[in-house]
Specification:
By secondary structure, the chain is α/β, with parallel strands linked by helices. The protein has 12 helices and 12 strands. It starts with a strand and ends in a 10-residue tail after the last helix.
C-alpha cells in the first residue's frame, strides 16, 4: 500500500477539517495542531510533507530547519511576513500564498470603516449609546460632504484596486501611492497617482493602507507621517499592523489631529493587556474612545471566503505533493 502524505496545519484551523480533506483526503492525512506559538510546533512538524501556516505564530528558520522532507509551505492567505521565506528558499522549500481570496471582503471592510467614521456614524452611535451629548448631529460636527474629497490608498494591488473602485462609487476622488505598480493603472482605473507618500498623505481626507508588510513598509506610517495628514482626516488600516504605528494613531486622535481611525490589524495579535491602544479604545473617558474602530484582524472574513482560502491552500498543497507546477510561489 502506498504511504500517505502528512499535511500539518500549524494554527487557527481546527477540526472539522472538511475543506482540506475534500481536496487532500485521498492522498494525505491532515492534522491540525492549533498551536499558539512556534515552540508548540517542536516534535509535531519534522516529518511533515507539507505545512500550512496561518497568522497566530511565526514560522521561522528554527522551524524550517527541522523539516526533514517538506515539499511546500503554504500560507492560506495573502500576507506571508510571519514565514521566513529566505530560510525556506535556502532549504529548497517553496512558500506559496493565496493572494486573491479576501480581495472583496477587505476592500468592503476598509471602505465601511472609512465611511462610518467620516459620516460621524461611529462617533454618534458610541456617544449616544451611553447617554453623552444631545440627540442631534452637533457633537459630530464638522462633517464635510464626501463627494470630491480625496481618498488616498497606500498600495494599489488587488485589494487596493478593489478599494479604489468602491471609494469612487461614493463620489470620492481617489489617489494612490505605490512605486511598484506599472504606469497606466491610474488611467485604467480613472484615479490619480501620487509620486511620493508625503504627497498622498498631505492631500487626503481619508487614507487607507493596503500594502504588504516588508522591511520597506514596516513602520512606514508613524507619528511624523500622520502629522502630515490634514487636520480632521481619517486613517484606516486593514493590511498589517506593523505598517502603522497604532500608538501614534491613538496620540493623534487624543490631540484631535485625526478625527477618526479604523484599525483591523495590530503589531501584536492578540494585543498585550497593557496595550495603549486597547486602553484608549475601552476607556469612555479617553479622547480616542469614540473615534476609534478596532477589529480583531477580521476584515478578510466571510463564510464563502473562508471556504475559498482553505480550499485554495489545500489545492496548492496537493499540487506540491503530486509534483505539479505551483501557482503562487513567493520565494
Amino acid at each position: 500500500m502506498k504511504q500517505r502524505f502528512k499535511v500539518v496545519i500549524t494554527d487557527l484551523m481546527t477540526e472539522p477539517l472538511d475543506a482540506e480533506r475534500r481536496v487532500l483526503g485521498e492522498v494525505a492525512d491532515v492534522i491540525a495542531l492549533d498551536a499558539k506559538n512556534e515552540a508548540e510546533l517542536v516534535g509535531q512538524i519534522e516529518d511533515a510533507d507539507a505545512v500550512m501556516v496561518y497568522h497566530y505564530l511565526t514560522f521561522s528558520k528554527r522551524s524550517i530547519d527541522r523539516l526533514s522532507h517538506c515539499r511546500v509551505i503554504v500560507r492560506p492567505g495573502v500576507g506571508y511576513d510571519a514565514i521566513d521565506i529566505a530560510a525556506a528558499r535556502d532549504r529548497g522549500i517553496p512558500v506559496c500564498n493565496v493572494p486573491d481570496y479576501g480581495t472583496e471582503e477587505v476592500a468592503d471592510s476598509a471602505v465601511a470603516m472609512a465611511i462610518s467614521l467620516a459620516r460621524g456614524i461611529h462617533l454618534l452611535n458610541s456617544r449616544l449609546r451611553r447617554g453623552v451629548g444631545a440627540w442631534n448631529v452637533d457633537q459630530a460636527k464638522p462633517i464635510p460632504r464626501l463627494r470630491g474629497r480625496r481618498f488616498g490608498i497606500v498600495g494599489c494591488g488587488r485589494i487596493g484596486t478593489a478599494t479604489a473602485l468602491r471609494a469612487k462609487a461614493f463620489g470620492l476622488e481617489v489617489a494612490f501611492y505605490d512605486p511598484y505598480v506599472p504606469d497606466g493603472i491610474d488611467k485604467a482605473l480613472g484615479i490619480r497617482r501620487a509620486e511620493r507618500l508625503d504627497d498622498l498623505l498631505s492631500s487626503s481626507h481619508i487614507v487607507s493602507v493596503h500594502c504588504p508588510l516588508t522591511d520597506e513598509t514596516r513602520g512606514m506610517i508613524a507619528a511624523a507621517e500622520i502629522a502630515r495628514m490634514p487636520q480632521g482626516s481619517f486613517l484606516v488600516n486593514t493590511a498589517r499592523g506593523g505598517i502603522v504605528d497604532t500608538a501614534a494613531v491613538v496620540d493623534a486622535l487624543e490631540r484631535e489631529h485625526l478625527a477618526g481611525a479604523g484599525i483591523d490589524v495590530l503589531e501584536q495579535e492578540p494585543p498585550p493587556k497593557d496595550s495603549v491602544v486597547l486602553a484608549a479604545w475601552r476607556d469612555p473617558k479617553h479622547p480616542a474612545h469614540d473615534r476609534l474602530v478596532l477589529n480583531p484582524h477580521t476584515a478578510y472574513y466571510c463564510e464563502q471566503g473562508s471556504e475559498e482560502f482553505r480550499t485554495k491552500g489545500a489545492q496548492e498543497v496537493l499540487r506540491a505533493l503530486l509534483g505539479q507546477p505551483l501557482r503562487n510561489v513567493v520565494n
